[in-house]
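Q: What would this chain look like folded?
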Amino acid sequence: MSAPFITEAAPLSASLAVALLVGVGFGFALERAGLGSARKLTGQFYGRDLSVLKVMFSALLVAMLGLFWLSWLGLLDLQALYVPPTFVWPQLAGGVLFGSGLIVAGLCPGTACVSAATGRIDAVFVLLGMFVGMLVVGLLLQRWAAFFESSAHGAWTLPQLLDLPYGVIVAVVVVLALAAFFVAERIERGTR
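A: My prediction, written as structure tokens:
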């Protein structure tokens, strides 16, 4: 048994409505956390403000624990969820490009949308740059297809990779998150 918007049988309009609600909710949470500000995001790199780590790790924990408990209660089949395939080199290159853009712009795509929605002009230019980049990649996709399809490894998950039960991975991630929150608080106190 799973939620109707997770199955393939769900109408496209229902899936899009759920995606819109989740996106607006996530954007609202980002703005309420102050993550529409490039200064707040770049504070992460200087150890002054580790809100990004705390907010994003919290979001990861909520999603992970929600999936774990829904699965444990028999309300969701984890095997029915789509996990994107792993392409090591293209994803590493994408991570470097994403990280470089975040350092230069001070915003990631999600926070740029939030920032632009609140009227910040710099975010509008970040979004324009992102759309130009997507257009360029789209136009050159055929030429780069061999690279994009290289180093395919199927859908990797931590339980499969580490050969550990899902519950053990959940417990380890929760402990790591609590440790990260504790260390983040100590770092922030030290920089004040």
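The chain has one domain: 12-191.
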